Amino acid sequence: MPDVVPPAFLFLLGALVVAFLPARLRQVVALIIPVIGLINYTQITEGLHWTISLMDFELIFGRADRWSLIYLNIFTVLSFIGILYIINDNRRLDLSAGLLYAGSAMGVVMAGDLITLFFFWEMLTLGAVLCILGRKTPEAGKAAYRYVLVHVFGGVILLAGIMIHLATGGSVAFDKIALSGPGAWLIFIGFGINCAWPIVGAWLTDTYPEASIGGVVFMATYTTKTAVYVLARCFPGEETLLWIGMAMATIPIFYAVIENDLRRVLAYSLINQVGFMVVGVGLGTPLSLNGTAAHAYCHILYKALLFMSIGSVLYRTGKSKATELGGLYRCMPWTCIFCCIGAASISAFPFFSGFVSKSMIMSAAASEGTVATTVIWLALLFASAGVFHHAGIKIPFFAFFSHDSGLRCKEAPANQLLAMAIAAFLCIFVGTFPNAFLYQMLPNPEASYEPYTVGHVTDQYALLLFSALAFTLLMRAGLYPAEIRSTNVDFDWLYRRGGSLVYRVFDKSLNAINSGVKKFFVGGVIGHVSNFFESGASRFVAWILLPVWMVAGYSPEKIEESHQSLFKRAKRGAFPIGITVFFAVVLLGLLSLIVLLNS
Amino acid sequence: MKDNSPQSDESPGWFDRKENVKKVLVGLYIGCGLLLLIDLIFRIVGFDKHPYFKWEQWPGFYAVYGFVACVLLVLVSKYILRPLVMRGEDYYEKLEKKSEEKGGVNDA
């Protein structure tokens, strides 16, 4: 294929070029790159392309098959929509970040080996951080810092997993991995952090609402969906994923009901929807895996649409909280209509995109017929009603209807409306004619599915309309929780607050114990214990890095030396809180990468 | 001079009229009633929905499930989750200030 280029390189090159172009030219080039990307996509044939031999490894930059191509398709489409959405502001950083982010995600899905995968995986974090920084508020700066912290940590875990996996005789191929042994588990968890699993995924609802209005459109598309892709590729049919997916689909919706910031509500519903996809991976049947891919495709479109519509509200009014909004249908009628189309799609109304993809996962769960899958099915049905309730109704209702906030603003800029219109059109088109192209692209063509049966359509309407009825009656009875300006603590507390707290507790209590006990015992066990807590963090890191160093072919002396230097850094207080943690973790990430490249 | 208050010279929006909101609500109630009726007719004439579980054939299963699910969702969120997790809007900002005042803890 001489006239085709690796999509990742096209977009990364684009990101670089756009960063240095003068204003007018920058706009044109930024919009043209996704168009070239689309043409390029249509020319890619199935097979292995762009392989490079590096040392003992064969790096594969283009594994094109039905699995990767459907993701490449939607990633490319969305990059155009996202760039179009932010083109009016023409900000160097935002445009460049969007292209970089898109290119990294494409690099991950096209990767054919774990090393290439890891390389682009880390670049995703860079793209996301730039998207957050694009907001240019002090809060965004802090959120970006927390984002880096979590994701570099996740990256180190993934890298350690890959290294251990390779060192214990695992293949470098990015393919099915049996979930046994520490290597596979670390890879699994590393993927899970980006997939926003419960507890380790609190970064998502913490940071997404702080990103720029266009940045969050890219974030909602690329990071979690590449994570779903890699899970489907490496761990299909892994039963643990059923329960993880179920927890993701159900728990966040309770938070969404009481959340005041509408962009955070969307972040919660994002996790809820990714939960469906993770269940699909956990089931591991041809139909459920099709469902995961289809749902990722549809989800990207309607979630981007919802984030764009609330983003436009934020753009025009400077507000995104339910308590401050309301009644905007008067002055932003088009944005309101697009938001409602996104809401209908995420709620899976028949003839909207969510309906033709989510039901595939539901049917796959139901047809298994075991007790576990029946429980999962009932939980997903609960989540389906819940997502309509908190995203389908709450988002448009509090932004565009509800009480009149008195805000009078202009309709969204033309380019934003156009971007939303394209996404809205695709939502309806895919939902109404799923066989036109979506079902043609699914990874397992042998598993056919028909969403439009009389029973399915009437049942779905019953589920949704009665959910709406519940909302109405609760509202009228005054039982619906009032919107309150508040922060709802989630597991992000663990690193926003807990990290320093835990350290302080250890610091204070152990030092006190230590000095107290030393009066009776000198050295001995107590010394060991306090020593452990003093250098626990560095020990943990050393434990992760040891296999890395071994694979890298370090001599025992050199390993000892690296050990000591790591400990010295930690002793000097590089691990506690604040800026020092930041550098330590970033340093570790860089260090690991350098080690990887030298191996 | 144009007044910024919504009551001024602009005409009220479609949803500002009580009778219009009522129309929407009546439409919703009729829709719900119709769906229950259809489900009942399906049951009487023995229409096969190709269900995976036997309870999917019960008339009104999806309607009741959707309704109960949402009521539960809202009540649990309001009366259990909110008292547990809700803090002031500036919760984390206050914490940050507090820990800054206390100074660094990393001097061993």
Question: What do you see in this structure?
Answer:
The complex is a heterodimer of chains A (599) and B (108). Chain A has three domains: 1-224, no CATH class; 236-483, no CATH class; 493-598, no CATH class. Chain A has helices at residues 7-20, 23-43, 66-86, 92-110, 114-133, 138-167, 181-194, 202-207, 215-234, 240-258, 262-283, 286-317, 333-346, 353-368, 371-400, 414-432, 438-441, 454-476, 493-518, 524-534, 536-551, 556-574, 579-598; strands spanning 47-54, 57-64, 487-488. Chain A is globular. A two-stranded antiparallel ribbon of chain A has the order 1-2. Chain A contains 23 helices and three strands. By secondary structure, chain B is mainly α. Chain B has two domains: 14-59, no CATH class; 61-99. Chain B starts with 17 loop residues before the first helix and ends in a 6-residue tail after the last helix. Mean pLDDT of chain B is 77; it is low at 1-8 and 103-108. Strand 3 of chain A pairs antiparallel with strand 1 (86-87) of chain B, so a sheet runs across the interface.
Topology (SSEs and partners):
The complex is a heterodimer of chains A (599) and B (108).
Chain A: H1 7-20, H2 23-43, E1 47-54, E2 57-64, H3 66-86, H4 92-110, H5 114-133, H6 138-167, H7 181-194, H8 202-207, H9 215-234, H10 240-258, H11 262-283, H12 286-317, H13 333-346, H14 353-368, H15 371-400, H16 414-432, H17 438-441, H18 454-476, E3 487-488, H19 493-518, H20 524-534, H21 536-551, H22 556-574, H23 579-598
Antiparallel strand pairs in A: 1-2
Helix pairs in contact in A: 1-2, 1-4, 2-3, 2-4, 3-4, 3-9, 3-12, 3-16, 4-5, 4-9, 5-6, 5-9, 6-7, 6-21, 6-23, 7-9, 9-11, 9-12, 10-11, 10-15, 11-12, 11-14, 11-15, 12-13, 12-14, 12-16, 13-15, 13-16, 14-15, 14-16, 15-18, 19-20, 21-22
Chain B: H1 18-45, H2 61-85, E1 86-87, H3 91-102
